[in-house]
Specification:
- It is built from 9 helices and 5 strands; from the N terminus they run βααββαβαβααααα.
- The protein is α/β, with parallel strands linked by helices.
- It has 2 domains: about 130 residues, NADH:ubiquinone oxidoreductase-like, 20kDa subunit (Rossmann fold); about 80 residues, no CATH class.
- The chain binds iron/sulfur cluster (2 copies).
């Protein structure tokens, strides 16, 4: 299977995390034929699976994306910028857009960053002709399983219960609140979440972070 990684304006944190980890890179190399990696090769080739990282910023990028990525059998939006056009909770200040406005996305992997294992899982599934299984539970699920201290219970504005997980609760693991970089978990009940908050929590900060989710939920 021919695989390519295409970076738009982003710093490519998910792609680089995968490529700068020798263990991950060996696994990637064993699984597929790596055809395109923009940092080492400028002229893209046709691929079966195209991972695209970064948001669309201009018409020229749309044209390039269609030309080089449009023919791939599977197009994977890699990271929150490619999926949403920006990384929550940052509001969209410029006119950046999700890549799905330009090419048909078959797999969306939000995250800032996406973990290398998640990328490898997608390739493994597509190789077998299966639909990739994207993590569907909230961040709190993995956070609680790992027995991290709950920051929300300490009064900090963590929105892990409203956020799509799969990141292994990276931020709470370091004592940092989840700010929702993976966007809203499906079926999230914003009203119920905010009703659970007490005066102990920083409700204003939480509501501010959740505003982005409301935008994403409304398309
Ligand atoms: S720290 Fe955040 S992610 Fe972890 S359990 Fe508490 S609210 Fe959920
Ligand atoms: S804990 Fe939240 S903000 Fe941090 S990486 Fe995971 S989803 Fe993103």
């Amino acid at each position: 299977m021919k695989v390519g990684f295409f970076l738009l304006e982003s710093d490519g944190c998910s792609t680089t995390a995968l490529f700068y980890n020798s263990e991950m890179f060996k696994k990637l190399d064993a699984m597929c034929s790596l055809e395109v990696f923009p940092m080492i090769q400028e002229e893209p080739k046709e691929v079966d699976v195209a991972f695209v990282e970064g948001a669309l910023m201009c018409e020229d990028q749309k044209r390039i994306l269609k030309k080089y990525v449009g023919k791939a059998k599977h197009i994977v939006a890699l990271g929150s910028e490619a999926c949403f056009g920006f990384v929550p909770p940052k509001q969209q200040k410029n006119k950046s857009q999700a890549i799905s406005v330009s090419v048909p996305v078959s797999v969306a992997l939000p995250g800032h960053p996406v973990l290398g294992e998640e990328i490898l899982d997608v390739i493994a599934c597509l190789k077998k002709g299966k639909t990739p299984l994207i993590y569907k539970k909230p961040v709190c699920y993995q956070c609680t399983l790992r027995e991290y201290d709950c920051l929300l219970m300490k009064g900090l504005p963590c929105i892990g219960s409203a956020t799509l997980g799969g990141c292994e609760a990276l931020c709470p693991a370091k004592g940092i609140v989840c700010t929702g970089c993976r966007g809203p978990v499906k079926g999230m009940n914003l009203k119920a979440f905010t009703q659970c908050l007490t005066e102990k929590e920083d409700i204003t900060a939480i509501e501010e972070a959740l505003k982005t989710f409301a935008v994403l939920n409304n398309g």
